[in-house]
Design a protein that fits this description.
single chain; five-stranded antiparallel sheet; three-stranded antiparallel sheet; 18 helices; 60% helix; 11% strand
């Protein structure tokens, strides 16, 4: 058919009284242009047919994973092969005499073929990654870094093929020459190589998962993406911080996943008690404290224990410093522990304690150490705030005061007095 079309064009140009050699060249040029136009028309027709019919079949199919291939425009990239193979097969039939032009077009067609196959492989890899990400295991074992490495390998091989096409050299010879520039390639691909190694170590050792809350440098938030060279963290203020993947292997960071999985988030905060308000308890003070239900039994049992000890050791109790006595800070500490023990918002399977820290020039730090039953930020802060709201309000009932620096209001009150 092409040969007949070529003869018709030659007769047409000869009928215009054009010289035979020029008429042949013009006929071949028009035939070549016609071939290119027809090839791309077939590409657009095939793309629309594949998109229409394959799309209908895939959407009606019960196999849900084929939709991922449709989303990655695989049919478009497969359709690109149609004009490529048409041109390669028919160019010498359409223009047998245009050797130089044909050679150039063949080179461009072979390059386009390599690029088309690379695009097909990219689409398949992207679809496979999306299919994998649809499973829960992808949160613990992401493969984005592996897919990116495979894409780099495909790109490298395609680049070598294109160089071989342009230089007309065998791929084997190019690989031999590639060894001489391996040091340069190592320098150019240093970050991807380190990122790939880091990604494998992160995944195999289960150090970081998507959704983990990590703290490293300026990054303080949830991991939203683990790539070949970078890990993206969405901070608590919704900003995005990008961290080199390998730095999570080479440098320390904090992962709060253990806290989330344990079912408790630690509360470790202190109040500073004014030393001037700490004192031994008088009988009047003890009677008043016994009205507080959470420490009523503690005070009674402690009094019996102290009374037996003082009698056994013949202690003169007429002076407060002799023997053992209860203090308001000790009863307050017992009250706080009892208050935490009956708090339903705390995880009582984890450690709960109230302890004194080393005194400072400001007073005695009394630390509350416990774990909230809810680990999300809002609930955690609400539980912690409720606990300390209560502590600040109740501490005066034990004749204690929280230390704070004198304010201008305090100074003015002293001046007025």
């Amino acid at each position: 058919m092409i040969t007949k079309y070529l003869h018709i064009l030659e007769k047409l140009f000869l009928g215009m009284r054009i010289e035979t050699e020029l008429a042949q060249d013009l006929a071949q040029g028009v035939a070549l242009i016609s071939l290119l136009i027809v090839s791309f028309l077939f590409y657009f027709i095939a793309k629309q047919l594949l998109l229409k019919f394959a799309g209908k079949i895939i959407k009606k199919s019960r196999f849900k994973y084929d939709d991922f291939f449709l989303d990655k425009k695989l049919e478009k990239r497969i359709s690109m092969l149609i004009p490529i193979y048409m041109i390669k097969s028919l160019i010498y039939v359409a223009a047998p005499g245009l050797d130089t032009l044909n050679a150039f077009i063949i080179v461009m067609t072979r390059i386009a073929e390599v690029v088309a196959y690379a695009g097909i492989i990219y689409s398949i890899l992207d679809a496979l990654m999306d299919i994998y990400n649809s499973f829960d295991v992808s949160k613990n074992k992401p493969i984005k870094g592996l897919i990116q490495v495979l894409k780099i390998v495909v790109t490298l091989i395609c680049s070598l093929l294109i160089i071989g096409i342009l230089t007309n050299k065998d791929l084997q010879n190019l690989f031999i020459g590639l060894g001489t520039i391996s040091a340069v390639l190592m320098l150019v691909f240093k970050d991807p190589i380190l990122g790939f190694v880091g990604g494998i170590q992160l995944t195999s050792n289960d150090m970081v998962r998507i959704g983990d809350w990590i703290v490293k440098g300026n990054a303080d938030g949830n991991v939203i993406d683990i790539g070949l060279t970078t890990v993206k963290v969405q901070n608590w203020d919704n900003t995005i911080t990008t961290i080199p993947t390998y730095s999570l292997i080479s440098d320390p960071f904090i992962n709060w996943r253990g806290m989330s999985e344990s079912g408790g988030r630690r509360i470790a905060r202190s109040i500073i008690i004014d030393l001037d308000t700490i004192k031994f308890c008088t009988p009047e003070m003890l009677e008043r404290y016994k009205k507080i239900q959470l420490v009523r039994d503690y005070i009674t049992n402690k009094e019996k224990e102290i009374e037996e000890y003082n009698k056994l050791n013949h202690i003169d109790t007429s002076t407060l410093v002799n023997g053992r006595r209860q203090t308001n800070i000790g009863i307050f500490r017992a009250y706080l522990f009892a208050y935490l023990e009956q708090n339903p918002n705390l995880n009582h399977e984890l450690t709960t304690l109230v302890r004194q820290r080393d005194p400072t020039e400001f007073g005695v730090p009394m630390q509350i150490y416990c774990f909230s039953a809810k680990t999300d930020w809002l609930s955690y802060e609400a539980i912690q705030n409720d606990i300390f709201d209560h502590i600040y309000a109740v501490i005066n009932q034990f004749d204690l005061k929280v230390y704070q620096r004198p304010s201008s209001y305090s100074i003015n009150m002293l001046n007025d007095k």
